[in-house]
Amino acid sequence: MAHLEDVIARVDAAVAENVIEHMNELLIELSDDAELTREDRYAQQQRLRIAIAQKGHHHKAEVEQRREDLTKGGTII
After folding, report:
1. Which residues, other chains included, contact 44 with Cβ-Cβ below 8 Å and sequence gap of 6+?
2. Where are the domains of the chain?
3. Confidence (pTM)
4. What percent of the chain has pLDDT over 70?
């Protein structure tokens, strides 16, 4: 059970850090973790996938807002 707690803490830290590259690395690492049950591994990987997707959606919204702000009146300011 201690290993699962360690993995959960690492996933928490990766999600809090909010860096997609680090979350992807941990996602891959968990794929090969034989100490976790299939369900535990899936649950932690899913947390990472959701965080990655949310970061991607947030970034896309920021880009769209920036473009809108820069193109007021149809021309780039």
Report:
1. 7, 8, 11, 30, 36
2. 2-74
3. 0.71
4. 86
